[in-house]
């Protein structure tokens, strides 16, 4: 399933990601892929599980923007089925975030979505956010681990430019 809506802002997108991730974590294929990604890790090495899921998505998915005026959010379980059939899905930051959130939830992680603004832009009374990523709670340290697919090795620099952030807890 693909949810296709006229773009109405970051809150709409974050809530779509939350809904898609929560629904997709229930699909057995999502759990099976999370297990396969983390199979070689030691039990209860939660940080490595988060990093393994992040690396798997980076290695097996391609970044591709949404159409100009439409917000597409692909159901993560459908993306997992594509991956399991050997295809390389093309996803934008919200699709990548939804996929990571579903896999992390299936692996038992607490997850939240973060939307950020790099500029102080307000339109019709609403802050304009430009990017979205997921964070997973590493339970041993109590730290939130950022899983951002767009910034890559420039994550620290990109996140240093954040002026505003809004957090949406998934679970």
Could you please describe the fold and organization of this structure?
The chain has 171 residues and is of the alpha+beta class. Strands 9-8-5-10 form a four-stranded antiparallel β-sheet, covered by helices on one side. Strands 1-3 form a two-stranded antiparallel sheet.
Strand order of the largest sheet: 9-8-5-10
Q: Describe the sheet with the most strands.
A: 4 strands, antiparallel
Any low-confidence stretches, pLDDT <50, length ≥5? none
Query: What would you call the structural class?
Result: alpha+beta
Please report the distance between the alpha carbons of the first and last residues.
Answer: 22 Å
Overall mean pLDDT score? 91
Give a count of the beta strands, DSSP E runs of length 2 or more. 10
Q: Give the overall shape.
A: globular
Task: Estimate the helix proportion, in percent.
Answer: 40-55%
Q: What is the gyration radius calculated from CA atoms? A: 15 Å
Q: Give, in order, the helices and strands.
A: EHHHEEHEHEEEEEHE
DSSP summary: helix tally: 6
Report a brief summary of the structure:
This protein is α+β, with helices and mostly antiparallel strands and 171 residues long. It is 41% helix and 26% strand.
Write the layout of secondary structure elements.
Elements: E1 2-6, H1 10-24, H2 28-38, H3 46-60, E2 62-63, E3 70-74, H4 76-84, E4 90-91, H5 93-106, E5 111-117, E6 122-123, E7 126-127, E8 131-138, E9 143-147, H6 155-160, E10 164-169
Parallel strand pairs: 2-4
Antiparallel strand pairs: 1-3, 5-8, 5-10, 6-7, 8-9
Helix pairs in contact: 1-5, 2-5, 3-5, 4-5
